[in-house]
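User: My collaborator sent over this chain with a note saying "see what the structure looks like." That's all I know about it. Can you take a look?
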Amino acid sequence: MKNYLFTALLASFALFSCANDDEGSSIDNSSVEAPATYVFERDGQSTVSFEGQTTRILMAGEIAGAFNDFDASTEASVKAMFAHQEGENNFSDSRLNASGKNVRSKTAASKDYFGSNATEAATIKNTFDGYIDNHFAEVVPNRNVAAAPGVSGQIADGSSPRYVAANGLEMNQIFAKGLIGALMADQMLNNYLSTSVLDEANNRTDNDNEITVADKPYTTMEHKWDEAYGYLFGAAQNTANPVPAIGEADGFLNKYVGKVNSDLDFEGIAQEIFDAFKLGRAAIVAKNYEVRDQQADLIRQLVSEVIAIRAVYYLQAGKVGIQDGDFGAAFHDLSEGYGFVYSLRFTRNTADDMPYFSKGEVDSFLSELLSDGSNGLWNVTPETLDRISEAIAAKFDFTVQMAAN
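Assistant: Without extra context I'll predict from the sequence alone. Here is the result:
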C-alpha cells in the first residue's frame, strides 16, 4: 500500500527539524510551525480569504448541471453562465448573479503557462465553448432518440440515461472534468503557488514588513496562497478543517481528491495536501520562503498525481464496460476519463516546471481514444485504453492496477 499519511508524517518530522543541526542543509525550518487547522489571524482578525475561488466553484457546478436541464437551458444561456457578466441573472443563486467573476476568464489563465501564450489560452477557452455548442446542437435535439454508432441520443447506464454525442462522448462530463485541470489545477499549481505570482513586484518585501493590502488584514502573498487553497477547499463546509469531509464539498477537485484518498493504495493523500497547504502558509507568516516553495512543490506533485490517477481509473473502468458490452456505463466512464486526460495538460512536474504531459502528448491521447474506428468510443478497444493508461502511469509512482482499484 502506498501510505501517504506515513509519508506526510515523515515529511513533517523532517521539516520541523532544525536545519542548523545538519551542516549540509541550507533550509532553516526551525521558525515554521503549522497550526492544527487552516486558521491564520493578525490582530485577532482572520487573514484567510478565498471568496473568488468559492464563487467560481459554485458557478462551475451550476454550469455543469445546466447541460441536461432540458426545460430551462439553451446554448445561449449556458454560454452566458460560463462567461457571466456582473448583475446578469444567469444563476439560481443571487450572490453568484451579483458577482463580477466568471469561470471562462480564469480557464487556462495561469501566469506561468499562459501569461505569454495567449493563443493556446484562447483555443482552450474556445474548446469549452465548443463543448456547450456541440451538446445543444447535436445531443439535445436527439435526447429522446436511442443512441447508436454515429447517432447521438440517450443510452442507459443502469437506471440512469446518459446523453451522448454521435462519437459516444458526454459533453457535460468532459466539460466538468476538463475544468478540474483548466481552471482548478491550472490556477492553483501554475498561478497562485508560482513564485512569479507569490513574489511578484513588492510582495516579498511587503510580506517581510507585514504591509497588508489596503483595508484588508492580509498581505498579498498570504492572499495568493489562500486563493490556491480555495480551489480545493473553498466550497467545504468547514474550510479550516476540511479533510474529514473530503470529497463532499463540490463535484470538482475536492470530490476527486476524496475519491483517490478513499483508495487504500493512496490513503492519506488528502491529509498530506492539506498539511502542505498549512505548513506553506505558516512559512509565509514566518517569512521562510524556502519552506513555502518546498510545500508548493509537494502540492503540485500530489494534485498532479490525483488527476493522473483518476484518468487511469476511468479509462480502466471504461474498458470493463466495453468488455461487458455495457456501453452506457462505458461511455460515462470514458467521458470522465477524457476530461481527466485533457486535464493532464495543466499538471506540473517540479523537476522541470513543465506539465507532466505536453499539449501534443495530451492531444495524441485524446485522438487515440476516438480513432479505433469511425464512430469514436463505440469502436475503442481495450488495447488502446491499456496503452494510454500505461503511458500515463509511467510518469508517476503508481501502477495501472493501483489506480484501477
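A starting point for your reply to your collaborator: The longest helix spans residues 289-324.
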